[in-house]
Amino acid sequence: MNLTLEDVRPLVGGELVDADDAKVGRIEDIYLDNQTQRAEWALVHTGLFGRKQVYVPLADASASDGKLRAAFTEDQIKQAPHIEPDEELTPEQETTLYRHYGVTSPALSPPSQPSSPSPAATAQPATDEAMTRSEEELQVGLVRKPSSLVRLRKYIVTEQVQTTVPVSHEEVRVERVPVTEANLDQAQSGPDLSEDEHEVTLMAEEVVVEKRVVPKERVRLGTTAVSTEEQVDEQLRKEQIDVERQ
Q1: Of the candidates 56, 66, 131, 138, which lies 20 to 30 Å from 226 by C-alpha distance?
Q2: Beta strand 62-64 with 52-57: parallel, antiparallel or unpaired?
Q3: For strand 67-69 and strand 15-17, is the pairing parallel, antiparallel, or unpaired?
């Protein structure tokens, strides 16, 4: 499909998609063939934030739904040789680009038989009396990615514990009771003289220590969002337009 200036002029500033309808970038300008006035090249912003500019041949390109569809893949377009945008493409630059895309231009000799193309084969941007001034804008986004890994690990430690426990025990105490009228009969119940023996069992408390496992608390991991501020420092380029009188 041969695109004319009227076909492509509304597409400047719109999207360029590849042969599989994948978005490639924004159309900065359209270059026309000097001789035929057909749309020959599209200058497209690609890459991160649209910083890279590449030329895309419009051979077999089509326009629909406000988009320009190229006949090449996204990778093939983004890997095109870098050529600084200018008011026109030189025949040598067109030859380099066509060789990359594997396209034979009607106005140029095949890459296998290089020759010096005529100046009529050069392409110029499809601009009118106005000049487009562009500048870079800073676009800052956020990417969520892992920063660290936190895990709970339980282990055993030993600590010395001291406590005081009151302990009691029995001791022998000798009690002497005088013989009176009240206990005379008990005192004379035995023989006058004899040998005898009495035993008393003494009781004492001993400390008994045992250990038992007692649940104390439940521990789990949780996350809390904390906001901080980071300074972004970047250089932006912009075009300036001067008026020259001759």
Answers
A1: 138
A2: unpaired
A3: parallel
State pTM to two decimals.
0.44
Tokens of 228: 């901080």
Which residues on adjacent β-strands are paired with residue 135? 238
* 236 found inside a domain: no
HSE at residue 195, side-chain half, CA atoms within 13 A, is 0
Determine, yes or no, domain membership for 207.
Answer: no
Question: Is residue 18 a contact partner of residue 70, using CB atoms and an 8 Å limit?
Answer: yes
Which uninterrupted H or E stretch holds 115? Answer: none
Task: Let me know if residue 83 belongs to a domain.
Answer: yes
Alpha-carbon Rg of the chain, whole angstroms?
50
Segments in the chain forming alpha helices (H)? 5-8, 74-78, 91-101, 184-187
Task: Give the CATH number, domain containing residue 61.
Answer: 3.90.50.10
pLDDT tens for each residue of the chain, 246 residues long: 678 778 888 888 889 999 888 899 999 888 888 777 788 889 998 876 657 889 999 888 888 888 899 999 998 998 898 888 877 788 888 889 999 998 876 554 333 222 233 333 345 555 556 777 788 888 888 888 888 899 999 999 999 999 999 999 999 999 898 989 888 888 888 787 888 888 999 999 999 999 999 999 999 999 999 999 999 888 888 888 888 887
Using the CB atoms, write b or e for 63-89: b if 16+ within 10 Å.
beeeebbbbbebebbeebeebeeeeeb
Phi and psi based region of residue 47 (left: phi greater than 0; alpha: psi -120 to 50; beta: remaining):
left
Q: By the 8 A CB rule, do 98 and 33 touch?
A: no
